[in-house]
Specification:
2 domains, Arc Repressor Mutant, subunit A, elongated
Length: about 220
């Protein structure tokens, strides 16, 4: 699938067409939440939002283009909210907890976006968008660790940031899927990440860091 397949055929310019786009987006989210990407198709989306399939194709060439637009909006919302947190005067652990609270808040406010996140994993055309988001998150974490005193070589601190992000992502999604966003699995993982963060800024290098974890 080429990048052109993910572009809207026409941008909404009037309130009426914007309302149609929003109906398509909300129907897509609802269907994703109910059955996942495997059961999602343009006919089902059009039927759910009570529009003719031709009206849907006026704006989107396929279901992937709708999911792509939703994913862009979702990730931009995350980036805007987290920037305010990163720029705050909170301590390291407090910033980490604030980021966690922010994601939980978005999940509650935008019902269905958890299913969208899962869809991004299985649609190859969206992997580039997800990878760009991951790169930005890792870069932000490196800056955060540097700000709070971590002086490791760039390769090592980046590797730690990647581990923190990827394990956070997997455990967060797993706890949400089980309906226990703040259950034992997440609380235990959160305490572990707190320990890693504080140890990273305390230790001179990754070797001392690893030794401390083994003690």
């Amino acid at each position: 699938m080429t990048s052109l397949d993910l572009k809207m055929r026409r941008e909404p310019r009037q309130q009426r067409t914007l309302a149609i786009i929003q109906k398509i987006e909300q129907a897509t989210l609802a269907l994703l939440k109910e059955g996942g990407i495997g059961l999602l198709n343009t006919n089902a989306i059009a039927e759910r939002c009570d529009i003719d399939i031709k009206s849907l194709y006026r704006f989107f060439p396929n279901k992937e283009a709708i999911v792509y637009r939703l994913a862009e909006q979702w990730l931009e919302e995350i980036r805007q909210r987290e920037q305010a947190i990163y720029q705050s005067d909170l301590g390291l652990v407090e910033i980490w907890d604030a980021l966690d609270d922010m994601i939980d808040g978005i999940e509650q406010q935008f019902s269905g976006y958890g299913a969208l996140w899962q869809a991004m994993d299985v649609i190859p055309a969206l992997h580039g968008l997800e990878q760009a988001h991951e790169t930005l998150q890792i870069d932000n974490m490196v800056v955060l660790l540097r700000k709070h005193g971590c002086c490791w070589p760039q390769k090592d601190i980046t590797e730690l940031a990647r581990y923190l992000y990827r394990t956070w992502d997997v455990v967060k999604q797993g706890s949400i899927e089980q309906g226990e966003a703040r259950g034992l699995m997440w609380r235990a993982h959160k305490k572990w990440q707190h320990r890693l963060l504080l140890s990273a800024v305390k230790c001179r290098d990754s070797a001392e860091f690893e030794q401390g974890l083994a003690d």
